[in-house]
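Minutes, project check-in
Item: structure for the 256-residue chain
Input as provided by the requester:
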Amino acid sequence: MKQNEALFSVQDLHVTVEDKQVVKGVTLEIAAGSKTALMGPNGSGKSTLANALMGHPAYTITAGRVFMKGEDITDLPAHEKAKRGLFLAFQYPVAIPGVSVANFLRTAVNARFGRDVPIREFRNELLEAMKALDVDPSFAGRYLNDGFSGGEKKRIEILQMAMLKPGVMLLDETDSGLDIDALRTVSEGINRIAGPENGVLLVTHYQRLLDYVKPEVVHVFMDGRIVKSGGPELAHELEARGYDWIEREVFATEGN
């Protein structure tokens, strides 16, 4: 990565879902060591953007480019993006009956780093990460997300991040369905993993997550595009006033 080059860069991205354009020209950058929030009402296209960035086959990038550490990763499949350190935490993590958390994580870690990590080394690192993130060690033997509560699923995703050590973390409404205690625990895990070498994109429509994971930049996303950007104070204004005032402001500007 060249000096002053963004860790992660999205340039004029357009995305369609079933031939309907949902993302309409998004440009943003994530610097190493930074946290960026993407806020917007339900149905604005935030999750579509996150899934398209990760390479979900149901989302088609029709224009624009995505760069990570200076490499164009736009057209790479999801597993290749993951190998390069891109991570997507889902709004609704799926259950995989028959696959234990430990086996899933070991397979993912081996693929991420391109080597067969010795069992003892993997086990020690997993137990250390579980302790740091307050995850019950017994979860290692349980089937992935099978019968887990919403908060438990989100903790396991944070555990995945701790083990995979991603360069860029896309967190798609990680706060969805969490009570205040689970939100605090998950937020502490995100803050523990975030560091000077990686970047975080927090996708949410509530300000409450940002009380714990504090962004430097806040973008407002509406109708498939970023319509306003600012600092942390913008998130507080959205919490107090909602999104209607921004919609009126945008339409008034575009109408002139």
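Outcome recorded: The first helix runs from residue 46 to 54.
No further action items on this chain.
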